[in-house]
Amino acid sequence: MKRCWWWLLGIAVLFCLYGGARTYACSCVPPRSPSEEFTKSDAVFSGKVVRIYETTRKEPEIGERVSQHAVIFSVDRTWKGVNETHVVVYTGFSEAACGYPFEAGKEYLVYAYDDTDWVTGICSLTKPLSLAKLDIEAFGKGTPPTQHVAAEELKEDRLNPFLPYMIVICVIGFVVILYVVQTRLQK
């Protein structure tokens, strides 16, 4: 029984050494005017959310992979930066991570910036299209996108490549622990 405690203590130490996932909080500067946001953004377009899926991507600012939502838009009008009929925009997993709460089937005016992918969040002036009348008046009617891209062509393969290995290691560890405990209890 004493050895069992040593095993449990060893496992607890390993968990402590691993640490935990880092957490980040969202803090936004006061909102800018639509013309200021237009100037600061790399892309401005309106479109309908076709699909939302969970993924991970490397965040350039912190150099780590983070969970995010990938939002596929069918682009209706573009003012800047986007010329494709369908684009993927990444946003934080929750509002606490600055993620914009997009809903499938709804239309939005999106202000995005380019950090190797299109990214937006609650700190931008991204909003439902029904609330974007003043923005659109300031920018004009925009133009329809000219480069056809099918939504199916957009990549969804951004899952952590080590995830299957981590799951296998955890399962093996759990089986070993059960085996050790079982043999100790039988003695």
UniProtKB/TrEMBL annotation:
UniProt keywords, alphabetically: Membrane, Secreted, Transmembrane, Transmembrane helix
Protein name per Swiss-Prot or TrEMBL: Tissue inhibitor of metalloproteinase
UniProt-annotated location(s): Secreted
GO-annotated molecular function: metalloendopeptidase inhibitor activity
Main localization category: secreted
Leader peptide range in chain numbering: none
GO cellular component, one term: extracellular region
Regions crossing the membrane: 162-181
SUPFAM superfamilies named in the record: TIMP-like (SSF50242)
UniProt superkingdom: Bacteria
Origin species: Saccharococcus caldoxylosilyticus
